[in-house]
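User: Predict the structure for this protein chain, please.
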Amino acid sequence: MAAMGRNAVQGKRDWNVDNRSEGAFEEALDEMLKPLGEQIGVKFSNHTLRRTFGRTMYRSSVEVATISKMMGHESIDQTLKYIGVDLDDMCSAMKAFAL
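Assistant: Here is the predicted structure, written as structure tokens:
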């Protein structure tokens, strides 16, 4: 399976073939996504897509450690901050806990 994330496989950055800085790559990606957003009438960025990916995985009961590795985060804490936990998540947890 291909690595997803900035430094997902032992620090390698194969996706960044022209060796631009991470910020420049993300800006270029956002510029490529902009016309699509305008076409469908929804403003989004690569960051929005990454966050949505992480939250969707989390809400599909994928372990946070797995999501963290897939996203190339250095720690699970970083992933938890990134995907966030909202009221819906807390309500779901309470329903699962209810006897």
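The longest helix spans residues 22-40.
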